[in-house]
Amino acid sequence: MQPHTLAYLFLHEFVSRIAVFLDRRVLFYILPVFSFVLLYSKLPHKELRFIISSVPMFNLSAAIAASRMYVSFLYYNNRRKNFWNLLYVVLLGLLMISLGYTIITFMASYENYPSGYALRDLHKNGCLTNNSNEQWVHIDTFSAMNGISRFCENDFPWRYSKEEDIPLEELFHRNFTYLLNEHANINGFKCLFTTSGFSWVHLQIGFPPISLVRASLCI
């Protein structure tokens, strides 16, 4: 599980646990779910999909906590007023963090399938060679992991190979017409075009403070 996902879940569960103190009835529902997540956390191999079913219950408890904070901020006027004001400010901050995280991950997801876009463009711009009625496309491991599936493939004359561990210098002797490859320079082939995809997030001074860094895939 990625660090940014863990941070997001931490903020989410922070508000959820506040609900336990604001409304004791929440404990009856949240305790089994929290135990479920804790047990799954003991697995050596961790993925978010294993615990995604617990998110609705955490959302419910977080909504209860947010509702109590909002009501207390508006209507309570006692010696704990400053405490409720602080919690309300924290709640607004968490909402803004959640919104920003959602925007960033949406932009990253949109740019996260460069191989699929590259294969689509290849189908549009590719042309038959003079010595073959078929067009063989080799898809390297990097490309196969970044947006290409069987649904992206076309019928004849297109043929596809996902054979792994082929040395770069041997690709020329395999009679491939096109390569979808992360390397721009391969002997015997010319890079026709490149497609950029999400690589990482870069922090910068100015607006916007965050930019997406893209990596290129060569065809």
UniProtKB/TrEMBL annotation:
Pathway field: Protein modification; protein glycosylation
Pfam family, one: Glyco_transf_22
Keywords attached to this entry: Endoplasmic reticulum, Glycosyltransferase, Membrane, Transferase, Transmembrane, Transmembrane helix
Keyword Endoplasmic reticulum listed: yes
Localization per Swiss-Prot or TrEMBL: Endoplasmic reticulum membrane
InterPro entries xref list: GPI_mannosylTrfase (IPR005599)
Molecular function, one GO term: dol-P-Man:Man(7)GlcNAc(2)-PP-Dol alpha-1,6-mannosyltransferase activity
GO annotation (BP), single: protein N-linked glycosylation
Any single GO CC term annotated in Swiss-Prot or TrEMBL for this entry: endoplasmic reticulum membrane
Catalytic reactions of this protein: an alpha-D-Man-(1->2)-alpha-D-Man-(1->2)-alpha-D-Man-(1->3)-[alpha-D-Man-(1->2)-alpha-D-Man-(1->3)-alpha-D-Man-(1->6)]-beta-D-Man-(1->4)-beta-D-GlcNAc-(1->4)-alpha-D-GlcNAc-diphospho-di-trans,poly-cis-dolichol + a di-trans,poly-cis-dolichyl beta-D-mannosyl phosphate = an alpha-D-Man-(1->2)-alpha-D-Man-(1->2)-alpha-D-Man-(1->3)-[alpha-D-Man-(1->2)-alpha-D-Man-(1->3)-[alpha-D-Man-(1->6)]-alpha-D-Man-(1->6)]-beta-D-Man-(1->4)-beta-D-GlcNAc-(1->4)-alpha-D-GlcNAc-diphospho-di-trans,poly-cis-dolichol + a di-trans,poly-cis-dolichyl phosphate + H(+)
Membrane association type: Multi-pass membrane protein
Record EC number: 2.4.1.-
Membrane-traversing stretches: 26-43, 49-71, 83-104
Main location: endoplasmic reticulum
Similarity section: Belongs to the glycosyltransferase 22 family.
Its biological purpose: Mannosyltransferase that operates in the biosynthetic pathway of dolichol-linked oligosaccharides, the glycan precursors employed in protein asparagine (N)-glycosylation. The assembly of dolichol-linked oligosaccharides begins on the cytosolic side of the endoplasmic reticulum membrane and finishes in its lumen. The sequential addition of sugars to dolichol pyrophosphate produces dolichol-linked oligosaccharides containing fourteen sugars, including two GlcNAcs, nine mannoses and three glucoses.
Protein name (database record): Mannosyltransferase
Organism: Camellia sinensis (Tea plant)
Lineage, top ranks: Eukaryota, Viridiplantae, Streptophyta, Embryophyta, Tracheophyta
